[in-house]
Specification:
CATH topology of the largest domain: Rossmann fold
Structural class: alpha/beta
Largest sheet: 7 strands, parallel
Strand order of the largest sheet: 3-2-1-4-5-6-11
Mean pLDDT: 96
Bound molecules: nicotinamide-adenine-dinucleotide, uridine-5'-diphosphate
Number of strands: 13
Distance between the termini: 25 Å
Strand content: 15-25%
């Protein structure tokens, strides 16, 4: 039997790019996804697909029985900050409780490696920029808290059962596969770049920029953008690192460069050639002023070498996906 990488949440935006990249690199891949926010058509047809919920222990046990799993990459979670403020228990149930079930099943099947989607939201409002992995983690919303709890649960599962984990703390993920065959398709869409591209495509009248009175260069929030394909490559490096070194660790994944929301808007105007009307709007609750990663640790320890180093190129790949599939996966033929 082939040794298989199990990707939980592999039908989602980032997970589908990970599955695709793993298959390109010759890995055997199985996917678990409930399709609660993901798309069946996003999953590379060479992966075996199991539709079901991570919290369903009977289902998950069955998947682990059928497959010979050497490592797990866990993307399956809810991730909308404002929703988590309104419905915190939904987040602790799906994200945090889902992790408990997953680790129980991994323990039972002697699967000892997990690469995990963590987030800059675990740091909360940073005291210093750029943010280092050793900085305090004090989340300001239930989404970030649910992910921090998942990191801590993995730590204690490592102590007790020897399950080794790599927590990858993503900053702002954007872009799409270069050929435009897979990309970001969320309902509702809440992320800045896809919303800007909806305006560029004429699907929305204008962009609302949430706040222009932050202590930044132009008053709008500053974020650190990383291309989705560069991001998923770090997961493959992390799996290899776990196999070679058998130690748990955490890494920031970002570009170490900050762009203000206005700079992103200007870049999107350049890339699309569209006017993209925008207006200033009140602050969005829970937004830190500036989030920039120190990501030299991932470069040094994992030998991560991101290929995209400018935000125009990142936006160009998202625009390519958008133009090829104006209605997202509703426009993608099922394989
Ligand atoms: P997404 O919603 O597109 O993907 C999540 C996938 O997980 C979906 O396919 C969904 O159907 C599935 N899923 C959710 N709960 C499940 C469950 N209980 N059982 C089975 N499947 C389930 O989100 P994304 O943007 O691809 O994010 C992936 C991961 O990365 C998330 O864990 C998120 O917290 C993390 N993250 C994302 C960003 C970002 O900028 N997009 C930033 C930081 C962290
Ligand atoms: N943003 C905005 N208008 C929108 C969506 C987002 O001004 O319609 C801002 C948001 O307030 C933040 C930045 O864009 O300053 C990035 O937000 P996003 O939700 O994409 O990612 P986050 O940084 O919250 O993870």
């Amino acid at each position: 039997l082939p040794m298989t990488v199990l990707v939980l949440g592999g039908a989602g935006y980032i997970g589908s790019h990970a599955v695709d990249r793993l298959i390109q690199r010759g890995y055997d891949v199985a996917v678990v996804d409930s399709l609660v926010t993901g798309h069946r058509a996003a999953v590379n047809p060479k992966a075996r697909f199991y539709e079901g919920d991570v919290r369903d222990k009977v289902f998950l046990n069955d998947v682990f029985d059928r497959e010979t799993i050497e490592g797990v990459i866990h993307f399956a979670a809810f991730s909308i900050v404002p929703e988590s403020m309104q419905a915190p228990l939904k987040y602790f149930d799906n994200n945090t409780a889902g992790m408990v079930t997953l680790l129980e099943v991994m323990t039972q099947h002697q699967v000892k490696r997990i690469v995990f989607s963590s987030t800059a939201a675990t740091y909360g409002e940073p005291k210093q920029i750029p943010i280092r992995e050793t900085d305090p983690q004090v989340p300001t919303n239930p989404y970030g808290e649910s992910k921090l709890m998942m990191e801590k649960i993995m730590h204690w599962a490592d102590e007790a059962y020897g399950i080794k984990f790599i927590a990858l703390r993503y900053f702002n993920v954007a872009g799409a596969k270069e050929d435009g065959s897979i990309g970001e398709d969320h309902h509702p869409e809440t992320h800045l770049i896809p919303i800007i591209l909806q305006v560029a495509a004429g699907e929305r009248q204008e962009l609302a920029i949430f706040g222009d009175d932050y202590p930044t260069k132009d008053g709008t929030n500053v974020r650190d953008y990383v291309h989705v394909v560069d991001l998923v490559d770090a997961h493959i490096l992390a799996l290899t690192y776990l196999k070679d070194n058998n130690v748990s660790d955490a890494f920031n994944l970002g570009s170490s460069t900050g762009f203000s929301n206005l700079e992103i808007l200007e870049a999107a105007r350049r890339v699309t050639g569209k006017a993209i009307p925008a207006k200033m709007a009140p602050r969005r609750a829970g937004d830190p002023s500036t989030l920039i990663a120190a990501s030299d640790k991932a470069r040094e320890v994992l030998n991560w070498q991101p290929q995209f180093d400018n935000v125009d190129d990142i936006i160009r790949t998202a625009w390519n996906w958008k133009q090829k599939h104006p209605a997202g996966y509703a426009d993608v033929q099922k394989a």
